[in-house]
Amino acid sequence: MEFHLPGRARELGQRLANQHLRLGITGVSGAGKTAFLTSFIHQLTNTQQSPLPFFQVMQQQRYLGGQCVPNLMTQRARFPFESNLQQLQLGQWPSSTTALSQITLQLRYKPQSPLKQKLLDWQTLTLEITDYPGEWLLDLPMLSLDYATWCDNVWSMLDTEIVSALAESFRRQLQLADTAGGPLVLQQLTDLYQQLLQTLKQQQLSLILQPGRLLRPAELAGAPLLQLFPLLPTQLKQGSILARQLQQNFDDYKHKVVAPFYRDYFAGLDRQVIMADCLGALNRGHHAMQQLQQALMLIMQHFSYGPDSWWRRIWQPRIDKVLFVASKADLLTPDQHRNLLLLLQQMLQQPLYQQRYQRCETEALAVAAVVSSELGQVKTPAGNKPCLRGRMATTGELQLLYPGEVPLSMPSPQLFQHHQFAFPEFLPLVGSGSSFPEQLRMDQALQFLLGDHLQ
Ligand SMILES: Nc1nc2c(ncn2[C@@H]2O[C@H](COP(=O)(O)OP(=O)(O)OP(=O)(O)O)[C@@H](O)[C@H]2O)c(=O)[nH]1
Ligand SMILES: [Mg+2]
């Protein structure tokens, strides 16, 4: 029997049916956050694309469409979705992110249950997502340190075998520095430290890149609190004016920059995506793999067990799902996707266990937000072999290649001594058509992150 609710009751029901979800996308610089977010929005707002079989709301034909709506926080920059998409369509990757931006989506869908269908024409899910430079993420540990401990930590990393030569010139200038301080001395040494951070970033030594704002200052460019670098532990004992100025800047940086960023961005997150570029790290060698693993551990550690974290108490109970993504899976032949996933899972063993322990649902996927290669075959004496065709990022030329195999678990340092991984860097395929850009497993990501809210 059909029944109809009076207009106002139906309107009220419609309002109650609106849900709100805050999604965080986390990862160090280059992990693929911006590309993922652009593709994610594209899948949800472009209704003419090819089907997404694992995204049930679409598969069940209950999805009515999604659109970008004005942000609640109108003072925040809007995530440049349209221009990012345009860049991809022109065969370019969006640029590395320099400042925080946000985007709000409204998704409309028909409810699944027949009873709800009688009460409501549709339901709405509002989705709020933030993008930010990956460098800012690794300032997180600074929150629980004082200046002296931070200097000790940074120098213990700068004194390691691989980086000490790179840090030598900065160390010498520090030793010669006028400890009476003053703006000029502070700025000159900050400039040198910034150059060192840039060099370390090129070497993908992401853990040492503190303070992150020296690399991506955004609105803080030229701010006195960004005159910040680690004195040598021996210089700290002297209690000089320079040391006191740096201590003050460190405290200001922590309280006025890092804490508000984490409070505003991470507080109230409902779900989180943690991205890792395992292939890039394999290319760069054992040290880069270790750095990636430590960065992932650090992210997870601070998100779950951060020391004296007032902000942790606010948001931690709310995160109920974490998706771990091994990005750029399109740079592999399909037979290697499983290995990539297993490698990521092995790197995450501990944090995954901790998340489960805390009753937070987790999933790991090998994903390509934007597919940049075509699959082909080459004839070899041993039979046909899969290979990839793509436009090389360095030359722009099309190339056919076999990218190689992914180890199933964290490779030993010895393996890197006699094997150089060489996964390619391709530009996005220039394409047209409604489903462009193509993706891999974004539907599984959408289902895990949103599926239960679209019922
Ligand atoms: N093949 C392939 N490459 C990708 C994909 N996503 C990202 N990349 C590559 O990785 C680079 C970095 O991606 P971004 O999305 O800018 O990374 P990010 O995490 O936002 O980095 P920051 O903005 O610096 O924090 C891109 O310029 C591409 O070269 C993908 O799905 N497939
Ligand atoms: Mg980015």
From TrEMBL:
It comes from the Bacteria. It holds the Pfam family DUF463. This is YcjX family protein.
